[in-house]
Amino acid sequence: TAEVRRTIQVGQTPLFQYGVFYNEDLEILPGPDMTVTGRIHANGDIYLNGGSLLRLHTPYLHCTGEILREPKYEDAMAAGATVIWNRSTSEFVVMDKDNCSADRLGLSRTIEYYDNFDGDPELWVDYADATWGGTVMTQAHGIRTVAVPSIQTMSPEGYYHDNAGLIIEYLGNGVNVIQRINGVLSTITSLLPAGTVTLGTIYDARERATLSMMRVDMGKLREAGVMPANGLIYAYRTDTRESRPHGILLTNGKELGAPLMLVSPDPVYIKGDFNAPDATSTFAKEPALLICDAFNVLSNAWDNTKTSTSIVPPAAATEINLAIASGIVPTPDTGGAYSGGLENFTRLHENWTGVELKISGSFLCFHPSVFATASFLSATFSAPNRTWMFDPDLLGREVEFAREIIPWAVDVRRVAWQDNAESILD
């Protein structure tokens, strides 16, 4: 007879508490000035570079690998300045190429502590702690991987589908809208106002294809009184493939009227202001979260006239209040195309030169995109004036749905192991 006893410690972390969370290498390489706020975590390396000034206004810049002051996709020197907030002094301190934690030779990823750290990771730890007051931590500090939800939970018949209060689907022969109340499913498509869910197309220059869209008018859903009590909407198409990444287009979402979590295994496009009611509106900003394969934004000026031969259409200022978990197309470890970095986490399709795109929420990358896998192409749009920031209001701590259905990272640590085998220590 043998007896084994194991003691474990289980921790839970709500992933939407991060301003930026990547379950792989994180690259932040903007051309224009950019400020990033909120907690930043990468289960991998962090690459920091920029054409001008990159300001990380955060008390938490952590990774399980190393921080490099250069791009991942090419062996180039850092062009601009990167400054990081010191949580002890509330001042910004420069991170230069010779005072970050790692270097690489060519396109290899061999960890090399710099000469001024004598190859000793503990010297880097002491330097980082003294310079940024605990803001900057890497694998040398013992930062551990944070678990993420499995992509299978996004799939039809997965967790979110099976718990959604409203399911919107395209099965190849029309759309269905299904309501779940107390576990009972009812098809309500015919009861909705005309135009609530329609079919159409859009030209996506990055994917180099005209793609089919299931267009969902969020305002009409709200007016019809069918926004789900638990806040969870699941929308999907059965014809989405990597060769044809058809998607979901959300329109008229300026006023939601209730907390919302929308999950789709497909690419999602948002047109115009979203969850951003005017000051004179009777509606308020709501906790709002999105999980999807790829996140696209179309401005308030988008008129769907873009084609494979047309010019890139002009954008108009747009505001979105939303926490977003989306896939990306990662930069390969050796060569290959650039992922676009955090600055292009949001896929754009218009000429945004001199135009503001304001996104308040969080930016989470759990996995590579499954369907929208075309490489980043800067020629298909021009960059906006990015006003991107973490917004804790979107988490809605007092809202029941936020506690029940938003993703949590679960960490299990073995604390002790004991068996009844004879021991010389007895």
Structure characterization notes:
This protein is mostly beta strands and 426 residues long. It is 7% helix and 36% strand. The chain has 4 helices and 28 strands. It has helices at 121-132, 159-163, 218-223, 400-405, and strands at 4-14, 18-22, 26-28, 34-37, 39-42, 46-48, 53-57, 61-63, 67-68, 81-85, 92-94, 136-137, 166-170, 175-181, 184-187, 197-204, 209-217, 232-237, 247-251, 260-263, 267-271, 288-292, 294-298, 318-326, 347-348, 356-365, 385-390, 408-419. The strands form 5 sheets. Strands 2, 5, 8, 12, 13, 14, 15, 18, 20, 22, 24, 26 and 27 form a 13-stranded mixed sheet that branches. Strands 16-17-19-21-23-25 form a 6-stranded mixed sheet. Strand 14 and strand 15 (184-187) form a beta hairpin. The longest helix has 12 residues, at 121-132. The two termini are 19 Å apart. 43% of the residues are buried.
Features:
426 residues, 13-stranded mixed β-sheet, six-stranded mixed β-sheet, 28 strands, globular
Distance between the termini: 19 Å
Which word captures the global form? globular
Number of strands: 28
Give the structural class.
mainly beta
Beta content: 35-45%
**Radius of gyration (Å):** 23 Å
- Rounded average pLDDT: 88
What is the number of helical segments per DSSP (H or I, 4+ residues)?
4
Major beta sheet summary: 13 strands, mixed
Query: What proportion of the residues is helical, as a percent range?
Result: under 10%
Residue windows where pLDDT falls under 50 for at least 5 positions: none
Helix-strand blueprint:
Blueprint: E1 4-14, E2 18-22, E3 26-28, E4 34-37, E5 39-42, E6 46-48, E7 53-57, E8 61-63, E9 67-68, E10 81-85, E11 92-94, H1 121-132, E12 136-137, H2 159-163, E13 166-170, E14 175-181, E15 184-187, E16 197-204, E17 209-217, H3 218-223, E18 232-237, E19 247-251, E20 260-263, E21 267-271, E22 288-292, E23 294-298, E24 318-326, E25 347-348, E26 356-365, E27 385-390, H4 400-405, E28 408-419
Parallel strand pairs: 2-5, 2-26, 3-6, 4-7, 5-8, 6-9, 7-10, 8-12, 13-18, 17-19, 18-20, 19-21, 20-22, 21-23, 22-24, 23-25, 24-26, 26-27
Antiparallel strand pairs: 1-28, 10-11, 13-14, 14-15, 16-17
